[in-house]
Amino acid sequence: MSTTTVVHLLRHGEVHNPDGILYGRLPEFHLSENGAEMAALAADWFAGRDIAALYSSPLDRAKETAGAVADEFGLAVRFDERLIEAGNTFQGMSLSSRSVRDPQVLRRLYNPFRPSWGEPYSRIVARMVDAIKVVRKEAWGREAVCVSHQLPIWMARRAAEQKRLWHRPDRRQCNLASVTSLTFEDQKLVSVGYTEPAAALYRGKGPLVPGA
Length: 212
Description:
Blueprint: E1 4-11, H1 33-46, E2 51-56, H2 60-73, E3 78-79, H3 103-106, H4 121-138, E4 143-148, H5 150-160, E5 179-185, E6 188-195
Parallel strand pairs: 1-4, 2-3, 2-4
Antiparallel strand pairs: 1-5, 5-6
Helix pairs in contact: 1-2, 4-5
């Protein structure tokens, strides 16, 4: 008999970011009121599931999202640097249509396949896979939640589905407070699922949020 284990990759909720900063790994970017509601809806979606472990990126928006799940299950949140947002050289900037024509910006856009403006996709996959393996082992035969960010989750999914890593950012299926579920039979991945528990709160927001 094989053992079924599910690792859920939960993206954090909406961030309070009135200036439209690409916040990346910067501190002090917290959930908005709408984002806190999103986190609560995601926690409600997990209710009744056999959640045995809860991990989170150490960034504020992820910690606050994980807190809603922790309250639902009475679990402690463990912080793992491998779940952190992707590194990005544009961190701290506001990338308006005007700024992307700036030579200082354009010079970083020469290789979209790596990508040249941030942490290599292959490196993101490697750290996410390492984290997922650790969490899967801990939650063996049960389920676990890892709170992370849009690009790391999307990279983990594309690798799981054996797809090329380079992609169009506007086509990522990883919306705010969404859940990407990896189901394993023993150590073999058998399915990838996706759901959006907070879809009612998107208010027209697309899947791509700067610094997500």
